[in-house]
Structures are given as C-alpha cells and as structure tokens.
C-alpha cells in the first residue's frame, strides 16, 4: 500500500477469499483493502490516537438519504448526544483533492449541518469550519482535537 502523510498504526491485514482485507476497528470486521480504505483506516486511527476522538462516537460508512437517494458518508464524528459534529471524505492517494470532492461533502452537509468538514487523500488533508450564519467556511491549519471540536459546536 501507499505511504501516507499520517502516523503509522498496527494494521491487521490478511488475505481472504475476497482478497486482501484490513480490520476496521469501528465496524469490528475485516473490509476490502482498497486505497481509499487504507486512507480511512489511517485517518480514523489518527483521530483516536493523536486527536483524542472517542472511537465509540465515530462511524464509518454512515448511511444518509439525499434527495431520495441513499448515500454513504465515509466517516461521521458525533458528540455524546449522538449529534453529528464532523463529516470526513476520503479519496485514494492518487486522487487529487478538488472542488468536486468538496462539493460532494458539502451536499452531504445539507443533511447533517455539521460545523466541520474534512477531506483527505492520505497525503493532503483539508479541514474547514462552516459558518452557517454567513453561509461561508474557512480552512483550519490543522484537524481540531475532539475537546475543541465539542466546544465549538
């Protein structure tokens, strides 16, 4: 797999009938090891180990309905009341982060209305804070830790 701009972790990888799989600690099962999944697993471990996000308040592949179509958010972070705080979208390391990627997560945010959006391809990470009052957003220099994320709801 690709080297990423994220801390390494002890990935549980094995070969099965479905091909190469990696253990997802949130879904508690092995999932296909795609380049995007490699990024997701690294980023989730980064949030938990470096930014103190409780694993019990993070969901991978959260289902939502947008304009009568079922979609899946790559990762959603919740507060203790299970209200969404942050949406995360991952791309393969060989995919450049573009406006189209941000448009995708912005459409999801029409439903969730979270204050934080994150997009990562494992090499570049972008986090923005949404200002609903002024219908704008601004980019942050780093991913906030969980405590400051809750305080800025």
Plain-language structure description:
By secondary structure, the protein is α+β, with helices and mostly antiparallel strands. It is about 25% helix and about 35% strand. The chain has three helices and nine strands; from the N terminus they run βββαβββαβββα. The longest helix has 15 residues, at about 35-50. It is globular, with a radius of gyration of 15 Å. The termini are far apart.
Number of strands: 9
Task: Enumerate the strands of the largest sheet in spatial order, edge to edge or round the barrel.
Answer: 4-5-6-7-8-9
The oligomeric state is single chain
Structural class: alpha+beta
List its traits:
six-stranded mixed sheet, 153 residues, globular, single chain, alpha+beta, three-stranded antiparallel sheet
Short description:
Helices cover 23% and strands 37% of the residues.
Ordered list of secondary-structure elements with their pairings:
Layout: E1 13-16, E2 19-24, E3 29-32, H1 35-49, E4 58-66, E5 69-78, E6 84-90, H2 99-112, E7 116-120, E8 125-131, E9 136-140, H3 146-151
Parallel strand pairs: 6-7
Antiparallel strand pairs: 1-2, 2-3, 4-5, 5-6, 7-8, 8-9
């Amino acid at each position: 797999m690709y080297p990423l701009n994220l801390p390494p972790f002890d990935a549980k990888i094995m070969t099965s009938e479905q091909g190469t799989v990696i253990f997802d600690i949130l879904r508690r099962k092995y999932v296909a090891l795609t380049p995007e999944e490699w990024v997701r697993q690294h980023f989730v471990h980064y949030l938990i180990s470096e930014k103190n996000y409780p694993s019990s308040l993070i969901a991978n592949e959260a289902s939502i309905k947008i304009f009568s179509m079922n979609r899946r958010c790559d990762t959603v972070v919740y507060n203790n009341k299970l209200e969404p705080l942050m949406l995360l979208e991952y791309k393969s390391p060989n995919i450049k982060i573009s406006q189209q990627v941000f448009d995708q997560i912005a459409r999801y945010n029409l439903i969730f209305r979270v204050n934080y959006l994150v997009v990562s391809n494992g090499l570049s990470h972008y986090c923005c804070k949404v200002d609903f009052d002024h219908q704008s957003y601004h980019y942050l220099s780093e991913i906030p830790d969980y405590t400051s994320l809750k305080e800025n709801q």
